[in-house]
Specification:
Ribosomal Protein L4, Chain: A; alpha/beta; 2 domains; about 210 residues; 7 helices; about 15% strand
Length: about 210
């Protein structure tokens, strides 16, 4: 097992924590992580874009003028896609962009993302992140103590003071361990795990 230092909110080392090799020491395959990230972003798309085609536009179906004898191009009704206000050709219609990725692949990609953070020395473990009240200034002060400016902070349980204190700080996101995902791990420069969240991650990925 890999051993990492556990620090407090002042940035001082207080103990050490062991990280299981089954999660934090796996072979990294960028193609697998890429597949999961692409699927995750695709699943976020609403797919609600829609245009009206010729049959859906409101307008008369009368032929605008006779077929021959005018010297102009032949023309049908006013809903033609070639006319202003007419229907749209090949426009978007509601659809699902969802991509299904096997559960085992998603788990593997998550382990790879965690492993990459550990190998790149971008993973920090804190014993706790206690804030007595909702105070953004106090949160920023702790981030400065631990030298973190762009980070994903993972907690084991709901921490209202922490979540509300961090919500207006750019470059920082607080997430509970059950919501941990590949995209957010790779998006942020640092990954900060509260010591209790390690057990939650183990229970999720080793069960």
């Amino acid at each position: 097992m890999a051993t990492v230092d556990v620090i407090n909110i002042q940035g001082d080392k207080v103990s050490q924590a062991e990280l299981p090799d089954a999660i934090f020491d796996v072979a990294i395959n960028k193609a697998v992580m890429h597949q999961v990230v692409v699927a995750q972003l695709a699943n976020r798309r609403a797919g609600t874009a829609k245009v009206k085609n010729r049959s859906e536009v409101v307008g008369s179906t009368r032929k605008l003028y006779r077929q021959k004898g005018t010297g102009r191009a032949r023309r049908g009704d006013i809903k033609s896609p070639l006319l202003r206000g007419g229907g749209v050709i090949f426009g978007p219609h509601p659809r699902s962009y969802a991509q299904k990725v096997p559960k085992k692949v998603r788990r593997l990609a998550l382990k790879m993302a965690l492993t990459s953070k550990l190998q790149d020395a971008e993973l920090l473990v804190m014993d706790r992140f206690d804030l007595g009240e909702v105070k953004t200034k106090a949160f920023v002060s702790v981030c400065q103590n631990v030298q973190v400016a762009n980070a994903l902070i993972v907690t084991s349980d709901q921490d209202r003071n922490l979540e509300l204190s961090a919500r207006n700080v750019p470059g920082v996101k607080v997430m509970r361990c059950e919501g941990l995902n590949v995209y957010d791990i790779l998006k942020y420069e640092k990954l900060v795990l509260l010591e209790g969240a390690i057990k939650g991650i183990e229970g999720r990925l080793l069960s």
